[in-house]
Write a structure and sequence with these properties.
The protein is mainly α. 57% of the residues lie in helices and 9% in strands.
Length: 171
């Protein structure tokens, strides 16, 4: 995995009965998938909704290729350029929320992305596992750090005791 950071937020709904747009925006924000540059696009939530609609249609029609969105299509949905979408899509992939896939259409290979699950919830469960695994590995490093600090202190104390016992008495 590339060296990108998980950037989780604590955004909450502004009303008691949020609509799908607000909920999708909150989900995107909480998962760190919103554009970080203020004013770049307010439409990233639409990509999430479109991926969800496509996976549902794909299952209904029994045509897996319908679940796939090209980067250009994703950019159009979000109201940004294809190149900018490539920049954002890396975070979606890092979280295992979407996966890269390809299919053949009219003799051409189409490369795109789809939700990494049969449902939106399933894809987010996979992202949650990715984050949980990251936290568990970090906890392992914290434990190792703690042990390392403890061993270094013990070792330093032993060296100091040894140096004091080897020094001549000052009588």
């Amino acid at each position: 995995m590339a060296r990108r950071a998980f950037y989780l937020t604590q955004k909450e709904p502004s009303s008691m009965n949020p609509d799908s747009k607000e909920l999708a925006t909150i989900v995107i924000s909480r998962m760190g998938l919103s554009p970080r540059k203020v004013g770049s696009t307010e439409q990233m939530y639409r990509v999430l909704i479109e991926l969800y609609e496509r996976i549902k249609l794909s299952a209904k029609e029994k045509k897996p290729e319908l679940a796939v969105l090209t980067v250009e299509e994703m950019g159009n949905v979000a109201g940004i350029t294809r190149q900018t979408m490539y920049d954002y899509i890396k975070r979606w992939i890092d979280l295992d929320l979407i996966i890269k896939t390809s299919y053949i259409f009219e003799g051409k290979v189409i490369i795109g992305y789809k939700l990494n699950g049969a449902t939106l919830e399933n894809a987010f469960e996979k992202a949650a596992v990715k984050i949980k695994n990251n936290l568990e590995l970090t906890l392992k490093y914290v434990r190792e750090l703690q042990n390392s600090i403890k061993k270094e202190k013990i070792s330093e104390t032993m060296r100091q005791k040894e140096s004091h016992s080897n020094s001549p008495d000052e009588n």
